[in-house]
Amino acid sequence: MAGAYDDRDGTIWIDGKLVPWRDANVHILTHALHYASSVFEGERCYNGKIFESRKHSERLHFSAGQLDFEIPYTVDEIEAAKQEILTVNGFNDAYVRAVAWRGAGEDMGVASAKNPVRLAIAAWEWGNYYGDAKMKGAKLDIAKWKRPSPETIPSHAKAAGLYMICTLSKHAAEAKGCSDAMMFDYRGYVAEATGANIFFVKDGEVHTPKPDCFLNGITRQTVVGMLKDRQIKVHERHIMPDELEGFEQCWLTGTAAEVTPVGKIGDYNFEVGALTRDVSDSYEKLVRS
Fold first, then answer.
1. Of 82, 137, 204, 205, which is least surrounded by CB within 10 A?
2. Which of 134, 95, 153 is nearest to 263 (CA)?
3. Superfamily assignment of 133-287 in CATH?
4. Could you say which of 82, 134, 139, 158 is catalytic?
5. 158 part of the active site
6. Which top CATH class is 11-124?
7. What DSSP string runs through 170-239?
8. Cβ atoms 199, 250 nearer than 8 A
């Protein structure tokens, strides 16, 4: 499948119905379009099975609750819908996107309690998120935008509005020939990339930012667990910018990114070393097991 995302063959699940891809539309006065009242999940299907599928569906419900709305489908119903859309489109390896939002209704201002909550699930074939950086190591810019305080946003929700500064940061990075950007948080600590968590290696031990103001990704949690199972010391802590110079290796984690090595962040260079390769290979085996 290729081409613009609004002009493809296939089927999308919307509110319990299978809809032809090109007919999967919403009204221009949909509340989410104007006020970002939307939450979503990105998931990957390997060999016909979505990795950590239920955790994603549960987090979708959690995120909706953080935005003060309730999805009118249970976790079990969402699970069934995801499998249905993979089957009807004939996908064995695919990316799955579930999105819930406040639709068009009686309210068209900031408040939207009278509007229906809608749910859609789409799937498509998608290769490496960072292209050949998966093998060579991604090049990252350093974003001017910072992840905000949890007092200003529902930082642990996977909500559409929280990605606005991520889009701006990634566009700026791509204009400089980079794959992505690393962001600091509101306190000046290292936080994450625009759509992936970040890990560093020094003296055989792993350091990763404490997710106290950004999403604690499902892939991040999986990789932390893998490292601990191997008796590799993992430090989940606040990391200062000046520490970047002392780290030897670096990688990103995310459902789309999977485990992607990083070769450069701003002026700092990293080796695509043995531990990074091992974690990437082990994750690939795990999701396909």
1. 204
2. 134
3. D-amino Acid Aminotransferase, subunit A, domain 2 (3.20.10.10)
4. 158
5. yes
6. alpha beta
7. HHHHHHTT-SEEEEEETTS-EEEESSSEEEEEETTEEEEE--SSS---HHHHHHHHHHHHTT--EEEE--
8. yes
According to DSSP, the residues that pair with 182 across neighbouring strands are 142, 193
Q: Considering only CA atoms, which of 209, 208, 206, 159 is closest in space to residue 187?
A: 209
Per-residue CA distances from 20 to 37, 100, 167, 238 (Å): 25, 19, 29, 47
Token digits for 147? 């992840």
Instruction: Write the single-letter amino acid at 103.
Output: G
Per-residue tokens: 232: 């590799």
pLDDT in the model for residue 1: 52
Average confidence (pLDDT) per 10 residues, the chain, 289 residues = 87 98 97 97 96 98 98 98 98 97 96 96 89 82 98 97 97 97 98 98 98 98 98 98 98 96 97 96 95
Threshold 0.90, pTM exceeds: yes
**Residue 272 DSSP one-character state:** -
- Domain limits of the chain? 11-124, 133-287
